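Continued from yesterday's entry.
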Amino acid sequence: METETLIKYYQTNPALFDEMQQNGHIRLPYQKLVEALGVHSIDELRTKDKLAGELFMNQGITFTVYSDNAGIERIFPFDILPRIITAAEWDHIEKGITQRLKTLNLFLKDIYNEQQIIKDKIIPAELIASCQHYLREVAGIKVPHDIYVHISGIDLIRGEDGTFYILEDNLRTPSGVSYMLENREVTKRLFPDLLVKANVRMVNNYPLLLHNNLMALSPRAISKPTVVLLTPGVYNSAYYEHTFLARQMGIQLVEGRDLVIDNHKVYMKTTGGLQQVDVIYRRIDDEFMDPLLFRPDSMLGVPGIMGAYRKGTVALANAVGNGVADDKAVYAYVPAMIKYYLNEEPILQNVPTYQMSNEDERKHVFENMNKMVVKRTNQSGGYGMLMGNKATDEEMRLFKNEIEKNPREFIAQPIIQLSTVPCFIDGQLKARHVDLRPYALCGPDGVKIVPGGLTRVALKEGSLVVNSSQGGGSKDTWVID
């Protein structure tokens, strides 16, 4: 069989953890996949690869790269071979994320109310005061069920020894869940029988779980509250996802101009007149939500919406002000928060993190910069980052100067060689680095996580940067029993 040749010539780095192959042997979770590939020729796999691209194009599954001068929509690159996680591994991940989200919700409630964690000197007051995403304007606002993080995407990586680590917490407007769902649909088209044979757990109930959670936030005790998804509009890089989720949940997709405030209540303009809105799933950043309170030049939000939010006549998911909990400098304190709020040891560990505002840690990073990844605390998408092992002396010098000017805006972490998985590239199997973003929903009934998430792939050989804006792609993620 031609596919036997693919496996035979699949090359992995012995120093890294490859999720399919260890010491020249196929790991048990991948054996059924390898057997299934055996019935396909390489030409058939090439055809499936081409079909996947056409399906993504026809579905309009795209994203925008803002730095691209051409300003074109791009198809999200998709690799046809799934990434496989065992039920036992997933159970560990699920428990760790649940523990973390319980903690972060307690932290957000505390930091916008009593601030006991600061009084007890677990977190330095200046760290919070200097966080640009800590919004004093929302202090004291009571949110339904004390839930601040309704929708989250927690990024995980797997290190050289196969251990999962939390890389970062996305608690504001996490994106990518539509790609997780569409990846599964495309995989069903490419390998229709394989998912059932492999006992792959389903992910397609995510929109239903999300809709139920949003409905449960309604301030009005009515059987059918009005839920809407608020989008910045067609020019947003995740607009495809906004339309996809609104359609899947059967709710209205609205822009700021479609909403109006009257007597501290939010109404949606319809052809039948004004209709009161109970819950808003917002995909607009905090600073654009209300020009009366935040950025006065914002055309995306709704003037006066924060007044209605404070009065409790409308629920917002996620809560405004969550950015203080996913600041990369605050991230370093989450293990201490878990011990403080839950009196538990962290189930999933952080990546070791150096605070540049600490003189000793800064000195250590400067002396070992070629082994570090340096990140700005308030940037995402792979921007504002220095990979020390790839950087020139000049690039490192410029970063050191920037850090010296404003150390609070930077953290550093040792470069961890992410695990690799096989990808079908140019008719061959090639090992590429991956991370994982599971999507968790917090509601009155607890934390629910659909089994899988979005596996992002660094398609460039040797690259550790998986972001789509930096040339990354994605895979379907299978959790198998």
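--- second protein ---
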Amino acid sequence: MEAIVYNSKGEDTGKKVDLSEAIFGIEPNTHAIYLDVKQHLANKRQGTHKTKERAESAHSTRKLKKQKGTGGARAGSLKSPVFVGGGTIFGPRPRDYSFKLNKKVKALARRSALSAKAQANNVSVLENFTFDAPRTKDYVAFLNALQLSDKKTLLILPDVDTNVVKSSRNIQKTRVMTAAQVNTYDLVHADQLLISADALDVLQTILAN
């Protein structure tokens, strides 16, 4: 599978690169994608939610009324969940939402996400580029040249480029990361993948194993 290489101005450079069939040409495994995205979102949860239960409510334990002769049920304390301000029944407690997922499943999920994007023609390979200084307008011009200003984009670089990262971070619907940081959630979330030529080599090396 071949892909045209574009420059940062959106022009065809006349070059082509090979996209690995084992990474960009497989039948997407939607269940693997689901599991990896589920784990990614679960691992981001803090799990610090908490409500006060009966033993933690700040109320006296004195009897509210006499136990018999009222015609109603006995009431022993305002801490009871049946009263306003009482403890919560089965309320949330701090917990860890993260769970384990095998490395091979995560790799399959990334390959499946990349293949799905490639099949939908939502993968563009770019000539390696950088900016002279961090300027948001330069990144805006870059997106306009590629006619992607209204889409969610994910730019994948081989290494951290401070000028490119800082130029993009104030722009909505834009994400920049290195090939080693790529995860299934960000691949699925983006409308268009922009992969630099060097990052493509790194990405294919990582996912080939």
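The chain has seven helices and six strands. Strands lie at 2-6, 12-18, 123-126, 153-157, 174-178, 192-196. Will compare against the first tomorrow.
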